[in-house]
Write a structure and sequence with these properties.
CATH class of the largest domain: Mainly Alpha
Number of domains: 2
Distance between the termini: 54 Å
Helix content: over 70%
Number of strands: 2
CATH superfamily of the largest domain: MetI-like
CATH architecture of the largest domain: Orthogonal Bundle
Strand order of the largest sheet: 1-2
Shape: flat
CATH topology of the largest domain: MetI-like fold
Order of helices and strands: HEEHHHHHHHHHHHH
Structural class: mainly alpha
Strand content: under 5%
């Protein structure tokens, strides 16, 4: 009798385990089905273009003639014989090193300060408005302000005050073109990062500041150092990556301000160089090599930011 009870119990346990496994498989299948639309979009619009771009970068292809295998020829050409690419790389790095960190820090500091003001909604709108306006449209305004003749607003103002006698060639002098592009880009790019940081600041539980006050946090600087910054790591990581991507992909603004080609190629960036080969010369193999190099550079910097700013938990 006892052996029969044990056999029945064992059979019931086995049936329960099978039922649990079926439930787990059904739950996993449901999760995969929910993930499938995003996965398809990701594969079609991200994975396949990246792989195809890598394949194209290893070929000579100009649309008209058949594709010919080139191996690493495009990459060797890029770094050894293409002086203009090296100029574009240097200009892009200069822009990214200045505009990236300055925009990243400024967007956080402005958000932190404005979050403590009474009329923060009005200030938030003022900061965010430039980021949703077309860069080409805004460049018209900035070109009027920094017109290189006497009728430009800035030149006219400085000449009237007696500081200078001849107008500054803002968009024609190679020494002033990149600083001007950086200034305009910073003004335009603060909005998106600012809004993200503001959302993050508003999501920090107020209880943490009360607990911090009990534990000895006495001023705003200590709150920022010990409470705000650790809680803002995910938002800072997002903004760091987005600022880097935006800085390395600058092209339309530089072309709108300085023209193409810019004087002495002072505003010639990697993306401008890539567009030149892709849409003017139709050398798609070489342009794909430039694009894939930029992708790897962006990816490497993104991994570095992940290491530095990723949350510990």
């Amino acid at each position: 009798m006892g052996s029969m009870d044990e056999a029945a119990t064992s059979r019931i346990r086995l049936l329960n385990e099978r039922h649990i496994r079926r439930q787990k498989r059904r739950t996993q299948l449901t999760g995969y089905l929910m993930l499938l639309p995003y996965l398809l979009v990701f594969v079609v619009f991200i994975i396949i273009p990246v792989i195809w771009g890598l394949v194209l970068s290893l070929t000579h292809y100009n649309i008209v003639q058949p594709m010919r295998w080139a191996g690493l020829t495009n990459y060797i050409e890029m770094f050894t014989n293409d002086d203009l690419f090296l100029t574009a790389f240097r200009n892009t790095l200069t822009f990214a090193i200045i505009a990236g960190p300055v925009g990243f820090l400024s967007s956080f500091l402005f958000a932190w300060v404005i979050n403590q003001l009474k009329f923060r909604n009005a200030f938030s709108l003022a900061f965010y408005a430039p980021s949703i306006t077309s860069g080409l449209a805004l460049s018209v305004v900035w070109l009027y302000l920094f017109s290189p003749d006497r009728y430009g607003f800035v030149n006219n103002l400085i000449i009237r005050t007696g500081i200078i006698r001849e107008p500054i060639l803002w968009t024609m002098d190679p020494d002033s073109i990149m600083p001007l592009v950086i200034l305009i880009s910073l003004w335009m790019s603060l909005g998106a990062g600012f809004l993200t940081n503001l959302a993050g600041l508003n999501n920090i539980p107020h209880d943490l500041y009360e607990v911090g006050a009990i534990d000895g946090v006495r001023n705003k600087f200590q709150e920022l150092l010990y409470i705000t910054l650790p809680q803002m790591k995910p938002y800072l990581l997002f903004n760091a990556i987005m600022s880097t991507v935006a800085a390395l992909n600058v092209s339309d603004l530089a072309t709108a301000i300085a023209g193409f080609p810019s004087p002495d190629y002072a505003a010639h960036t990697i993306v401008v160089h890539m567009n030149d080969y892709a849409f003017t010369r139709f050398e798609l193999g070489y342009a794909s090599g430039i694009a894939f190099f930029l992708f790897l550079f962006n990816f490497t910097l993104g991994r570095i930011f992940m290491k530095l700013l990723a949350s510990d938990d």
